[in-house]
Amino acid sequence: MSANLRIDIDRLMRRLRRLGEVGARPEGGVSRLALSDADKQGRDLVVGWMRELGLAVAIDAIGNIVAVRPGRGGGAPVMTGSHIDTVRAGGLYDGNLGVLGGLEVVETLNAAGIETARPLAVAVFTNEEGARFAPDMLGSLVYVGGLGLDEALATTAIDGARLGEELTRIGYAGEATPGWLLPHAFVELHIEQGPVLEADGITIGAVENLQGISWQEVAIAGTANHAGTTPMRLRHDAGYAAAWVATRVREIAQALPEQVGTVGVIKLEPELINVIAAKATFTVDLRNTDEERLKRAERMLQQALDEIARSEGVTVSSRVLARFEPVRFDAGIAKLIEDTAAGLGYSSRRMTSGAGHDAQMLARVCPTAMIFTPSVAGISHNPREHTEPADLEAGANVLLHTMLELANG
Amino acid sequence: MSANLRIDIDRLMRRLRRLGEVGARPEGGVSRLALSDADKQGRDLVVGWMRELGLAVAIDAIGNIVAVRPGRGGGAPVMTGSHIDTVRAGGLYDGNLGVLGGLEVVETLNAAGIETARPLAVAVFTNEEGARFAPDMLGSLVYVGGLGLDEALATTAIDGARLGEELTRIGYAGEATPGWLLPHAFVELHIEQGPVLEADGITIGAVENLQGISWQEVAIAGTANHAGTTPMRLRHDAGYAAAWVATRVREIAQALPEQVGTVGVIKLEPELINVIAAKATFTVDLRNTDEERLKRAERMLQQALDEIARSEGVTVSSRVLARFEPVRFDAGIAKLIEDTAAGLGYSSRRMTSGAGHDAQMLARVCPTAMIFTPSVAGISHNPREHTEPADLEAGANVLLHTMLELANG
Fold first, then answer.
1. ipTM
2. pTM of the model
3. Is B378–A225 a contact, with Cβ atoms under 8 angstroms apart?
4. Is the Cβ pair B243, A266 closer than 8 Å?
C-alpha cells in the first residue's frame, strides 16, 4: 500500500524557499546565524508548520526543537532532523533540507492517513554551523550528553554575546532536558556539500561513515633579514619553512588512503618583498575516516615540523584548534538506505561524509546513518549552493521509505 | 694639512639618534615609510641641518633633496647621499648613515675652514626602500632619467595613496627638474646589510659591483572548495601551488652560483582553515651579480609556474615589479676607497652589494662606487640593525677623504 507513496516536491520546494526568505541577503544567499533574530524568525516559522501538521513540539534547555508524531505501538521514535542555522552567507539547502524533508515525510503520511508502529520525530538542533558559537554541532552534542548544559550556555559568540542569554532573548530557552527523547534510530537527509555524487552521476549517497577532523595552527619563528645580502646558507626563513610544510601536507594526504589535507591560511610577517619572513602562521586541516590513519597523518605532520625546525634553524610550535574522531554509522541503516534507493529506482552509492553533521552526535546514542543528495559543483556554505529539485525529491522519498521501514520493520 | 682631518663621531651619532627618534616605534626600531608624516618630519629635520651648515638646498619634482657646498673651481660636484625612508620596522643606520655621513663631512670641512676645488653635494633620494611605493630606488631612478616623472608621480602606494599627491601633501613636491645637477662622481656610504665584513673581521668594504634584482608578483587562481569533502585529485588549490613555487624558489637559488631567492609575501583567499584557497598572491625576489645567471633564474621560475599551472589545474599570471641589471661600479673609485682606507689604517676588501642602493642609479650617469661598514650579525631592515660607532667613524672618515681626493684631485 505505502510502496507507491511519494513526497510532494512542490510542497517541499515551497517550504525551502519560504524559509530561505528569512535572513535573505540583498546580494543573494541566506544569513541566519545561530540564535540571531533571523534564526528566531526561522524557528517560529518551522514550529508553526510543525503544529499545523499536528506534531507535539518540545523545546529543550539548549534550544533544540523536537516534534513528535505518535505511533500506534509507542516506544522510542524513529527520528530525523538537522539544523536551520546558516553560515554568514549560506544557501537554501544546508540543514534546512533535513528539517523540511522531515516535515514533508510527516505531511505525506498525514495526507495518506498512514500510521506507523513507532512514533516519528523531527528535530531542529541548535548552532550546527559553529559560525557564531564554537563548537559547531553544539545542540546535538549537548543532546547526547557530550557537552554539559551549563558549559554550553556559557559559550561566548564571536560578537561577544552569551549563548544562554541569546536563547532566552529569542524565546527558545525551553523546559525539556536535552536528550529527553532517546531515538530508536536516527536518519538525517542532507546535501553532500562535495562533488562526488555529481561527478559520478549518482542521485543518492548512503552515508556509512564520517571523517575524523584534526585542525592545528602552526607558528614558525625565523629571523627577518635582507633578501639580497643574506646568503642562502645563513637564512632562517619562516616563510620558506611554512611553504615547505604546506607541500608536505599535500604529500601526507596523497600517501595515506582516504586522507585529505589542506593549508587554507598562511600569514607571513613582516610581509615585505625584500625581507626574509621572521614569522609564519598557518593552519593544517587533516581528515580521515580511520582514526589510526588520521593519527598517522598527525605524526607525519609532526615529523615534518621537527625536520624543518632542524634544517632551517627555526622555532616551530603548534596548537590543536579542533579534534574529532571519525564516526562509523550503522551498517544496517546504510544498507537499508541503499536498498530503499534501489527500490525507488534511484542510483546510489555508499559514501563518506567529509563535513560534520548532527547525525555524528546522534550516532553516539542510537543506530544512525545519513542520506546525501548531490551538490552542484560541490559548492556549499555559499549563496551559490544548489541541488536540483529532482534530486531533492529523490532524497526526501528515500527518507520517507527508510523511516517507514525503521518505524514498522 | 687635511691628511690629519677626521670626522667627529659623537656629532654624527647625535644626528643619527636624533633622526631615529622621528618615527620611532614603541616596541623598538623606526618606521618612516616614504612620504608618510614621519618621512616629512625626518626631511624637515635634515633640511634644517643642511641649512645650518650653509648648504644651498634644492628640492626636485620627485622630492629628492640636493644640498650643495660651493667649490672654488665650480663645475660638477662630487656628490654623496642616500635616503632617509625606512621599511615598516627598520633601524637607525640604513640610508640615514649615507645622508648624515655626508653632512658630517661638510661640517668637518666647515669647522676646519677647508674649501674644495669642485663643489660637494649631499643628496636625499625619495622612496629608496620601496616599502610603500614600487619600485624601490624610485627617486634616484627618476633623477638619472630611468623612469619618467609623470609615471613616477602616478605610482600607487600599498595603502592606496598616489605618490604625487603624497609629495604635495607633505610639502616636498619641489620646483627643480630631477637630474638638474649632474655629478662629477658619486660615492655612497652605507651599512653592509649583510654578514660578510663582520665574518671576515674587516672594517671597510670597497663596493665594486651590485647584484641585479628581479622582483615579480605572482597571482594564482584556483577553485575554493570544502577542505573535507574535496578529494585530493579534484583540487585546484592556489595555496598549495604558491607553497610549491616558494620551495622551488629556494631550489633555484641553491642551484645557481651567487644566486639568492626569497618569497617574503604570501596572501591566500578566502583564508579559512576549512576552505581550499581560491586565490594566492606572492612575491619572488631573485638577485645575482651576473645578468646571464639572473636571466636563467627567471627562466627556471617561469618553468616552475608553467609546471604548477599544468599539474594543479590553476591559472598563473605574473608581473614584473622591478628589474635591474647587475651594476659594475667605477674601478678607479673602488681602488681610491681601498687606498684611502689603507692610508687611514683601516682594513678593507673589495666586495659586492647584495642590496639595491641609490648609487646603482647614479652609476648610470657618473663614475660611482660605495663604502660599506659592517652590520652586526648581518641584520638590517630590522629594529636590531646595528653597526659599532667605531665602524661608523671609520666609514665616515673614508667618505671624507675619498670625497676630498675626488674634489681636489
1. 0.76
2. 0.74
3. yes
4. yes
